[in-house]
């Protein structure tokens, strides 16, 4: 009887131990499965996060490549993982930086297996490099002493409706040479000298000199960047070049020139003009060369250079010319025609607008 009881106890203990082992095994298996699931979800979330960040960069690049279409849906895949982004723009007119578009980007990215999803929101601003189209074909911070020849075709409404504006300066305008300002039609028909608004010894209403309201910082007035921070604008240029020899009719955008600018062929076009900033060096345009756009002869703060600004032999600027110092115009020729289409395009064309992220607008919810 005692032996039977012992055997029964042994079997009972064995069964209990087996049950415990089975329960522990099942619990461990369940725990490991849960651990694997958590790790897989974590890896999927990490993947979705990386895809969302990369996708956001791709979306901003696509917006930058086509700034005329800021309201759209953009989809794509990165490493087998899909994303979709919706962009909605709001335009702000007459801001301190001109016409500004603020774009709200709402992006959803998935992991490759579709188990994880990441949502990002970001705002970007599309800003013009040039705040607004110049109102005058010639603007000089300082005096303008012309002893050579010049012809300037006025902006017919630069001084207000029906009031022409040819030259705008902070100092005196002294016409000692053979030159004149005139209307658009007179310039086109070659009658600028015979039907002038202003000429030697006679200033018309189209010349606004000694203007107390002339901006103290012409560079900032035009580009929205203080003169003391000019490197910021230079770094945003389409290209930085040592001279103008490589430029031609297909050139466009903001072009920063660090050496003498003496082009031998036309630069830019009415549809795709240029904004040339020539830093501390001479501008000499010879022959029948036409520059479509803006020429800004820029003297950097602290520089004592006095570069020349001369157009000879039928050369002319279709647009505007500006300088933040007294340029050397002696014995040269200055032929500038205010071209509204050209000057509008240097503000609105894609090559003259930049995309910037708006600080504090990124969020992942």
Automatic annotation (TrEMBL):
| Keyword Membrane among record annotations | yes
Residue ranges annotated as transmembrane are: 6-29
Q: Taxonomically, which superkingdom?
A: Bacteria
Name of the protein in question: Type 4 fimbrial biogenesis protein PilX N-terminal domain-containing protein
Q: Give UniProt keywords alphabetically.
A: Membrane, Transmembrane, Transmembrane helix
Organism of origin is Pseudidiomarina donghaiensis
